[in-house]
Amino acid sequence: MNWLDEIRWDxxxxxxxxxxxxxxxxxxxxxxxNREALAKTAETGRAVYYSRSRGKLWxxxxxxxxxxxxxxxxMDCDNDVVLLKVTQLGHEPGIACHTGRHSCFFQKYEKxxxxxxxxxxxxxxxxxx
Length: 129
Fold this sequence. Notes:
Elements (H helix, E strand, L loop, with lengths): L14 E7 L5 E7 L1 H10 L3 E4 L4 E4 L8 E8 L6 E7 L18 E4 L2 E4 L7 H4 L2
Parallel strand pairs: 1-6
Antiparallel strand pairs: 1-2, 3-4, 5-6, 7-8
């Protein structure tokens, strides 16, 4: 059996993926992969996601230069979520979020409001052309 056949793909042929920084354990981002994206990730050692909005493969860092080197690919107990252990490259500390922050999970719930708790490391206007 092909290792990709063991994944429980959703009706659109996608699987949710969490990118976690290997060195710190920080959860950097959530994205989607199709079979081709996951196969390319395994083959190249660089994170390749599937962009639902663009309807195509999205090599992380394609525009921004904020590439993710993949050290491990894991799957959860239900075979329906993938975890990538990565090193985030392109800025120090690495920027994973399109808002110019280290992590996409920069908003924290406090007293009935969402508060930004991580700084913008680089202006997104200077990252994306």
